[in-house]
């Protein structure tokens, strides 16, 4: 089932790009020398492209290409304590992957349009808010366990047709404009 972006979400994405909340991914924006734990949705229409974009755009030249995937319907949206549906144990799986693989970088990725988000009437803006809440919750959880663990949020957008893009989400820019979108 192919979902399309709503007009509201298209408008939000444009505004979030203009406000610097969504930023084009640059290979050096999130160093992953030992690899990255990718927490994302397993959506069969988008997963392969998300993985490919991480592999080709996020991994810095010269870095080890090593992506450890943790996939659920709804992906990283499920980390936020305020999420409409949470998955218990996802943080423990991140911690376990970090320990087993020696990876200290975690990419929390959502995509738009998303069937799970739509089923809970979540806009792109609310999804971004949940991702950032999840990032902060995960960082807090890991502080005592794995203090060197780093988290970053990303949004994969299917604009329509073959146009797909992955964006870094700036939490500080989001904090500055959040009230305008929620």
Distance between the terminal alpha carbons, to the nearest Å? 28 Å
> pLDDT under 50 segments (min length 5)?
none
Oligomeric status: single chain
- The number of E-state strands comes to 6
Q: What string gives the helices and strands in order?
A: HEEHEHEHHEEH
Biggest sheet layout:
6 strands, mixed
Structure, explained:
The protein has 182 residues and is α/β, with parallel strands linked by helices. Helix content is 40%, strand content 23%. It has six helices and six strands; from the N terminus they run αββαβαβααββα. A six-stranded mixed beta sheet has the order 1-6-5-4-2-3, with helices on both faces. α2 links the parallel β2 and β3. It is globular and about 45 Å long. The two termini are 28 Å apart. The mean pLDDT is 85.
Properties at a glance:
182 residues; alpha/beta; 6-stranded mixed beta sheet; 6 helices; 6 strands; globular
State the gist of this model.
This protein is of the alpha/beta class and 182 residues long.
Protein topology:
Blueprint: H1 7-18, E1 22-24, E2 36-41, H2 47-58, E3 67-72, H3 90-101, E4 105-112, H4 115-119, H5 124-143, E5 150-160, E6 163-169, H6 171-181
Helix pairs in contact: 5-6
